[in-house]
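This follows on from our talk about sequence and fold. Can you supply me with one protein entry, sequence and fold together? Could you add the entry underneath, on a fresh line?
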Amino acid sequence: MKTITAHTIVKNEDRFVWFAVMSVIDYVDKVILWDTGSTDGTVEIIKEIKRLRKDKVELKLVEQRTPEEFTKIRQQMLDA
């Protein structure tokens, strides 16, 4: 059986992340969110979504300081 996974890189998206995730969560098997250092409420919102839908949400906290690191994170997403 195939699994459908939605994933995205986020940083300081507290105004949008709840709506973005909730708009797809019922249509996919899993949502992976890669946070690259949010300083607003993004991580807390994702943790709340994860609490409500723990079977579907995964949060990965990664550091991204350079464009090269962003490329590595993007490749990790594709590999996952």
